[in-house]
Amino acid sequence: MAVGCSSSSTKSTGQLTEVRQGSFATIVAAPENPDNPTTPEKVELGKLLFFDPRLSSSGVISCATCHNLGLAGTDRLPTSIGHGFQRTPRNAPTVLNAAFFQNQFWDGRAQGLEEQAKGPIQAEAEMNMPADMAVERIKSIKGYHEYFEKAFPGEEDPITFDNIVKAIAAFERTLITPNDALDRYLRGDKNALSPQAIRGMETFERIGCTSCHAGPALSSGAMMKFDWGSDPGKASWTNNPQDEKFFRVQTLRNVSLTGPYFHDGSVETLEEAVTIMARVQLGYELSDQERDDIVAFLRSLVGEMPQVEVPVLPAE
Amino acid sequence: MAVGCSSSSTKSTGQLTEVRQGSFATIVAAPENPDNPTTPEKVELGKLLFFDPRLSSSGVISCATCHNLGLAGTDRLPTSIGHGFQRTPRNAPTVLNAAFFQNQFWDGRAQGLEEQAKGPIQAEAEMNMPADMAVERIKSIKGYHEYFEKAFPGEEDPITFDNIVKAIAAFERTLITPNDALDRYLRGDKNALSPQAIRGMETFERIGCTSCHAGPALSSGAMMKFDWGSDPGKASWTNNPQDEKFFRVQTLRNVSLTGPYFHDGSVETLEEAVTIMARVQLGYELSDQERDDIVAFLRSLVGEMPQVEVPVLPAE
């Protein structure tokens, strides 16, 4: 690969390809957590728990309710519906490729998938299940005992809340969506992206979207200020005025499948979301052509969905 | 097979095997509906619809919510939780092997799977989705159009409520659970059932359970009087006093996975359910041994669960 092309004054497609090598990356595998190494036994258990509505106090809400794997890991609602049919305050981010992030939740109040998973189980408006009751419920289902023993070998009392979320996180690390058109393009298939999508990618880089949306998940995962709506974002838990309206940068993988958009789900279409992001975050007014090009690029980010068989849950 | 053994006065195991050939049958395939022949395209579409929460007015409840294929086609609740977190009046019967029945719902108010599927979608306390709105919602998801065109070829306007339920019913006809221990036993594997389960099967026949619980689904599917609780059963829609407390005979396939039991989900354990059924329906007081034997037999009715991959639903 030639180096130094970026010193040229005009930004041709070829030169932007050079830039792009730094901004984008293919999805290969999710990063591991050294404190919770993935094993097939943990993934299998985590899959059961992810789909098990008995982890909720009502017995009808599972992780999969709001992170529906048939709907690209979301619920396609502006904000989710949880325990007692309460509306949650924010839009459910996709679980697909969530393993690429350290900051979890829109407001970054959890670090890593394990800590994240503790939230919705216990949240009164989501699964409404206190941690000790979750452990008690799972322990009462004898069929789970062997799964926990296999997933956490050598532990005397493996059914703990920490192990429940470790298993769920291990399963979530398998929920990645490789081989979308961008991935194939980056690997050298120059026809994988349409000419319009390539133009969109170039505009995306040129106007600065890649300053936040880069890397394999097309997100730095950082907390960034986004002045939209009344939600205080990170300040809602730090109570620090400097964190006002800071939100975790979202992944753009599969973004065309995960509307409505933003933390409050207030925006229906990708076209509108792109226009707003350019204006609010970059002070840039997109032309209709630029907007449509970027949307064409974003639509190329639909990867291979994880193939997940509905697990047969332990009955008793 | 020897004929005429049943003329003997004592009921030995061998003789009961003769009787059993008449009472039981293996599960091979669900009966077809000539008005809705199964095709792979219809099954594929039906699977999408079965899992699609957008068929509910809230967007979070799908057929699979109450008929969870990970929980043997039920929700494992006494009575279901539906729209607005309302409790439904009755226990959700399993969708597994439901195709064997003409009478549908506990009170038999629908005939066949197609008519059944119309109920929960529209019921205010379940999915709360008027038929015309369901059609409108599905039509608004362009990705569905091709699926309907393939499933109902030659139809000018294939996205209709009738076709929605036809597709769901076609998928449901694939949800059968063959090759349980009884099936293998009936095919000649005399070790498939434990000695206790065989004793239980014989008691089951001897005291008359098979007068209602026979055939491949271990249910005649008929409406029978069961005087339990305050639910008027079939009379709730016929308003005929003669239908008071008549309920559809339930399948016993996978029954150990589908508690709590009865139309009101009032009974937690299979042991208790068996004791009550013998007493109330047959006037027979089971000894502890007989009860445990029958339960061992019923536990042998767990078949091969359908392998269903979480479908990728059309996004827009």
Secondary-structure blueprint of this entry?
2 copies of one chain form a homodimer.
Chain A: H1 13-23, H2 40-51, H3 63-66, E1 103-104, E2 110-111, H4 112-122, H5 131-140, H6 143-151, H7 161-172, H8 181-186, H9 195-206, E3 223-225, H10 235-238, E4 246-248, H11 270-282, H12 288-299
Antiparallel strand pairs in A: 1-2, 3-4
Helix pairs in contact in A: 1-9, 2-6, 2-7, 4-7, 9-12, 11-12
Task: Give a written overview of the molecule.
Two copies of one chain form a homodimer. Chain A is mainly α. Chain A has helices at residues 13-23, 40-51, 63-66, 112-122, 131-140, 143-151, 161-172, 181-186, 195-206, 235-238, 270-282, 288-299; strands at 103-104, 110-111, 223-225, 246-248. Chain A has two domains: 13-28 and 177-299, Orthogonal Bundle (Cytochrome Bc1 Complex, Chain D, domain 2); 40-172, Cytochrome Bc1 Complex, Chain D, domain 2 (Orthogonal Bundle). Chain A is globular. The termini of chain A are far apart.
